[in-house]
Specification:
Layout lengths: L1 E7 L2 H11 L8 E5 L4 H9 L4 E12 L9 E9 L2 E4 L3 H10 L4 E8 L6 H9 L4 E3 L2 H8 L3 E10 L8 H26 L4 E7 L5 H17 L3 E4 L6 H9 L2 E4 L10 E4 L6 H9 L3 E4 L3 H15 L3 E5 L5 H8 L5 E4 L2 H5 L7 E5 L5 H14 L13 H14 L4 E5 L5 H12 L4 E4 L7 H4 L4 E6 L5 H12 L4 E7 L16
Parallel strand pairs: 1-2, 1-3, 3-8, 4-6, 6-7, 9-19, 9-20, 10-11, 10-12, 12-13, 14-15, 14-16, 17-18, 17-19
Antiparallel strand pairs: 3-7, 4-5, 4-8
Helix pairs in contact: 1-6, 2-5, 3-6, 10-11, 14-15
Bound molecules: iron/sulfur cluster.
Iron/sulfur cluster binds next to helix 7, helix 10 and helix 14.
């Protein structure tokens, strides 16, 4: 059976797609079929299509959304026509792959019209939330039945540059080149299809410290009104940051960017005393979202330094938590990242050891063992320096990694917690990747991956894991199993400034 049939309305579109496919090893499983222009011709042709695992429609399309430009590629999140809707749940995966192929991709609803849409009709369609319009996708979607379906349109005309203007003709030449690049991506999309088992590692996503930090910003916005300034990312997740920005939070790198007297939140990773002092000098109204478990490491650092020890912090250079903890003990603290760092230590006093809260327990354990070997009298690190949430998420990913063909860790690239989960899974022998959302999942990873383990760092919202699972479900039937290694019931109280 053919793997994929790509339908186009026009011969020029079909030739462009076929030209691009010649360069892909998947082309033998792909057929390009010209279904003709308009919904009636497309419906008749679609009814006669040979069996195939997946159907796609591609070709030129017209924008109705003002944000689209000629040359943009729209991946339909759903196809609408005559009151019917055909969802395209794998759209985020396809859009991500097209973006990695260098195409300017947008996602949104596509409307199939029985005729060319212009002027007022275009504006009316835009008000329905449609992004673009074509005349063939709906009948092919209907013919797909339960099979994998996608619609991808290269925009050649927009409300500002309607069909047959000079700008449109120039765009059409570029659009043919875009269609040639879309063909191989559609072939990879079809090759990634199939039934799958998803193992959800649990616990995953938000920990108590992150829940608290996000709630502090939300409550500060409610109580004091926008803008509320936040020093550094409140937690290391770009989606959380963007969401709070939309609601009125302003993220700054340094307090110098905050107007005097403004409400300012310190992030969950904690700050050095020098930052608190600067906030005091500038008269800022501070709400401290430092996680209580990070604050505990600060307190330990102060205690060790006060009795004259060298405070050795196992952690990663440049991480905000590390800067905050070492800032507590100026002249009395040193960072070590690995065993080589331990070998360079030349302490002239007692040694006390602490760890960053979000390290991989196995790696940190090796460094701590080396410290104890070199300095048998050294104190620490305490077993709970690496916090409960980090420990539980690492145990959970270990529990699913061995069974999975692929492990996807959802989290931002600057999340220490999420990076460590990826490393832990890889050390278990899994093919493991960090993704910020479904768009980051490369289709090549999914080919032949019948069991996919999913987890997320402590700063990743659960909704992003659901979005990845939903996109995988768009590639075929999904059987989802939750694998819980422990229950979590930790909760922290809010600071008095935002307490109800
Ligand atoms: S990962 Fe641990 S230390 Fe960091 S915010 Fe969450 S609970 Fe606190």
């Amino acid at each position: 059976m053919t793997g994929l049939i790509v339908c186009t309305a026009l011969g020029v579109e079909a030739r462009a797609v076929a030209r691009g496919l010649r360069r892909t090893p998947d082309h033998l499983r792909v057929r390009v079929v010209r279904v003709g222009m308009g919904p009636d011709r497309a419906a008749r042709a679609a009814a006669l299509l040979p069996p195939a695992a997946a159907l796609a429609v591609t070709g030129f399309g017209g924008a109705v959304h003002d944000g689209l430009r000629p040359g943009d590629v729209l991946v339909a999140t759903e196809v609408r026509s005559g009151g019917e809707v055909w969802p395209c749940p794998s759209a985020p995966l396809l859009a991500g792959e097209l973006a990695r192929a260098g195409l300017p991709v947008r996602t949104g609803p596509l409307f199939t019209s029985p005729r060319l849409v212009t002027g007022r009709e275009r504006r009316a369609l835009a008000r329905t939330g449609a992004y673009a319009v074509d005349m063939e996708s709906a009948p092919v979607a209907a013919a797909a039945g339960g099979r994998l379906f996608a619609a991808v349109r290269v925009i050649v005309d927009t409300p500002a540059a309607p069909l047959l203007s000079l700008a449109t003709i120039g765009g059409a030449l570029g659009a043919r080149r875009a269609l040639a690049r879309i063909g191989p991506v559609l072939a990879r999309w079809a090759a990634a299809a199939g039934p799958r088992r998803v193992l959800l590692a649990s616990p995953r996503s938000f920990c108590a410290g992150v829940e608290r930090a996000v709630e502090i910003v939300e409550r500060a916005l409610e109580r004091f009104g926008a803008p509320v300034y936040v020093r550094k990312q409140i937690v290391h997740n770009i989606h959380v940051v963007r969401d709070l920005e939309r609601r009125g939070a302003v993220f700054v790198d340094e307090l110098a960017e905050v107007p005097p007297g403004a409400v300012t939140v310190f992030s969950a990773h904690g700050v050095a005393p020098a930052v608190r002092e600067e906030a005091g000098r500038r008269g800022l109204r501070v709400v401290d979202a430092t996680c209580p478990l990070v604050a505990k490491v600060h307190a330990e650092a102060r205690r060790f330094a006060a009795r004259g020890d060298l405070v050795v912090l196992i952690g990663h250079a440049g991480h905000e938590e590390v800067e905050g903890v070492l800032g507590e003990v100026p002249g009395a603290g040193v960072l070590v990242e690995d065993e080589a760092g331990v070998a360079r230590l030349r302490p002239e006093r007692g040694v006390a050891c602490l760890t960053q809260t979000t390290l991989a327990a196995d790696e940190a354990g090796r460094v701590a063992a080396e410290i104890r070997r070199r300095f048998p009298g050294a104190e620490g690190p305490r077993g709970d320096d690496i916090c409960y949430a980090t420990t539980n998420r690492q145990r959970a990913v270990r529990a699913v990694a061995a069974e999975a063909d692929l492990v996807l860790v959802v989290g931002s690239a600057n999340s220490s917690n999420a990076l460590r989960l990826t490393e832990v899974a890889a050390r278990e022998g899994a093919s493991a990747h960090l993704v910020d959302g479904p768009g980051d999942v490369a289709l090549g990873w999914l080919r032949g991956a019948r069991t996919v383990a999913l987890t997320a760092g402590a700063s990743t919202p659960g909704s992003l894991v659901e979005a990845v699972a939903a996109a995988l479900g768009g590639l075929g039937p999904l059987e989802v199993e939750e694998r819980r290694v422990t229950e979590e019931n930790v909760a922290f109280t809010l600071p008095k400034e935002v307490r109800p």
